[in-house]
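Running co-folding for zinc ion.
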Amino acid sequence: MEQKIIGFDQDELGDWRAILACGHRQHVRHDPPFVNRPWVLTEDGRRRFLGAPLECVKCDDGEPVGDGVVSAAALEAAYARFAAELDGYIRRRAPDEAAAANALRRALVAIDAAADTYESARLEEWLATRIDATLPESPAQSADGLTELAAAARALVDCLPGLHRQAIILTDYRGLSERELAARLDLPLDAAAARLSAARRMLAEALHDCCDTLL
Ligand SMILES: [Zn+2]
């Protein structure tokens, strides 16, 4: 995921790091002949690269910037994103406005009722199963549909505190097993498994809370 450079700082060895808009830091060393970034050594050079995009692998891996609980404003924004994505998905599959509004309401009720059954699966697949059953003409689950719902799923995953969000992203989205997750996070296997199951419970709660708020 691309993120803009919003500043620079130095690590304990004096190597330059870019501070990205997401809050992650990424080394931008000048280390010839392997990496040529002479601009990073001067203040003027660094200023020229403010606003430039960098690929942030930490964002792709869901690495938390902090583990603070998500703010109320951020939750509200995430729920709104979830609702908008769901609405779009349903509208593209409903014959008219009234049918779409009806189906959206039924989908939220169905998701709320089933939230406790959510377990290990990409959230968009779980959502598609619930939503498609409420549509006037239940479509065959398609790759396109899942891609459309991925943004809705991601909005809810973003409601989790950093470490729990990371556990979900690394397993369900990056495909790590519990054992690989433990190795990656440098945790004993049971601690990694406990974090993952806590994260799934939080996601089920987010589904409930989000639907209750929207209904
Ligand atoms: Zn990032």
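Result summary
Residues 3, 20, 22, 24, 56, 58-59 surround zinc ion (CB under 6 Å).
Residues 2-60 form a domain with the OB fold (Dihydrolipoamide Acetyltransferase, E2P) fold (CATH 2.40.50).
Job closed.
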